[in-house]
């Protein structure tokens, strides 16, 4: 058993401790907002918050998450009320939407640490792959959220 806290709820996973966190979240907890894309830590679709840091959930094992506090897109806010979510909705940024949860988690982590990030910091924080080409509008939306 691996014990951690997910979205403020204690959870025990009876899975191989070597399982990447993304599969525990999606398959055992049905938290499917955390997407699985590349599986190599490149795309950012699986980004969650672990103890205050944006982390690719495909690159960390359950064993490494023992005792941590994990927040997924489902736990970030109620009713999409986080400032980043509101700015993305208001700006109509999202297209296919697959990458958006991971981007929101990274942007939320950025704004928690830096209330007024410059463009360079935003670009660095949302260094995720998106085939829809939304990055310029996304940067504007994150600026609005800040
Ligand atoms: Fe984890 Fe792409 S699925 S970074």
From TrEMBL:
Q: What is this protein called?
A: (2Fe-2S)-binding protein
Give the UniProt keywords, A-Z.
2Fe-2S, Iron, Iron-sulfur, Metal-binding, Oxidoreductase
One molecular function GO term is: metal ion binding
Q: Which domain of life is it from?
A: Bacteria
Q: Where is the 2Fe-2S ferredoxin-type domain?
A: 1-76
Give the fragment's position in the full-length protein: 1 to 146 of 179
